[in-house]
Amino acid sequence: xxxxxxxxxxxxxxxxxxxxxxxxxxxxxxxxxxxxxxxxxxxxxxxxxxxxxxxxxxxxxxxxxxxxxxxxxxxxxxxxxxxxxxxxxxxxxxxxxxxxxxxxxxxxxxxxxxxxxxxxxxxxxxxxxxxxxxxxxxxxxxxxxxxxxxxxxxxxxxxxxxxxxxxxxxxxxxxxxxxxxxxxxxxxxxxxxxxxxxxxxxxxxxxxxxxxxxxxxxxxxxxxxxxxxxxxxxxxxxxxxxxxxxxxxxxxxxxxxxxxxxxxxxxxxxxxxxxxxxxxxxxxxxxxxxxxxxxxxxxxxxxxxxxxxxxxxxxxxxxxxxxxxxxxxxxxxxxxxxxxxxxxxxxxxxxxxxxxxxxxxxxxxxxxxxxxxxxxxxxxxxxxxxxxxxxxxxxxxxxxxxxxxxxxxxxxxxxxxxxxxxxxxxxxxxxxxxxxxxxxxxxxxx
Length: 446
Ligand SMILES: Nc1ncnc2c1ncn2[C@@H]1O[C@H](COP(=O)(O)OP(=O)(O)O)[C@@H](O)[C@H]1O
Ligand SMILES: [Mg+2]
Known about the structure:
Helix content is 45%, strand content 14%. It is an alpha/beta fold and 446 residues long. The strands form four sheets. A seven-stranded mixed sheet has the order 2-1-3-4-5-6-7, sandwiched between helices. A five-stranded parallel sheet has the order 9-10-13-8-14. Strand 11 (259-260) and strand 12 form a beta hairpin. The radius of gyration is 23 Å and the shape is globular. Bound molecules: adenosine-5'-diphosphate and magnesium ion. Magnesium ion binds at residues 173-174, 238, 423.
């Protein structure tokens, strides 16, 4: 059967360009200039709909997107200017791909070919001509290695197959897991992340499975664990090799029986959760070293997804740097640019801390620069300077503040800066994740 595509684009010339590309990829194409002319039934009868987010008309787009999700129509959205926030919203509504007009045909072609089930269409490497990076789910990047990741995500998103996301620290494993959730049939359910490194061993079991009142001393109330909170949705078990071996065995049993019990309870609770795990090193090595049980590994890694290190993403490095700068410019209504020297330094750096490191360095350079990100950025890269909290989360404390209060302010600001990513915050603060976790417990009321 011929794949069908509907293009909504008020720019007829651009629509024409897209149509030609789509026809090449085996689609039969319909073009419309106005969204209002489309009725619901028409929308759901296409394999792919490409929407122009003109006038940021997100509300009217939402209904269409929601319908599409149910019947399996795939949505791509585009806009005239790179608009990170808009892209994010559209993707959260169910669009699977976002790009900036005019369309970069090389980036789109492999995705189209996939939808048209032309599996053997060769991918093009676009490493030489990229200025902007397209967005797939919550992920940015056009490099060959990222496009391969996108295709794999699309393949496994629809099933409940257990996916282990493997990649160096800072490569975006959490974004991958979240994207998988957003593209799955569970996208209307909760997405919950449990970081095995951030929870003390003694608490991990009851945090995961929950407990009844009186299950142990201190259990003053019934507690719903992460598995229960993720019901109907997706649970990410992050840094799985940090979970102790006993608990790994219990986890395996739960996954195999598809039932769990709160601590101190006799009642079985059916497991309606998709489990995704993440691991920041080669899981086979972790098995050999004894930090990951072999039986659990096979259960969790039915489909391992390898997230490429930043140094394997070609011109995405520069594209991402521009993207992060663009985000800051948008947020603060500024117009800073990257100097040639800074761009070169970015391309030549090895980025051991991957995208997280890149983001922090751009942010740091941004607050230290007036119009162009230049010497400061180069300095930060060549010094390998450790970077503290930046941007709006600068901490200033008046004389007379206690060290304890100052520490608390710094910890809270850092967490805000890392979007509550505790391992990242601990890294910036130079303390262990467990120490950070203990501090946060101290701050809790009662
Ligand atoms: N492809 C990407 N596009 C945009 N941002 C990214 C991408 N990959 C990573 N990031 C950003 O880098 C940081 C680290 O990502 P995260 O998912 O926490 O990495 P990991 O879990 O692998 O350590 C976050 O700020 C995230 O938003
Ligand atoms: Mg992580």
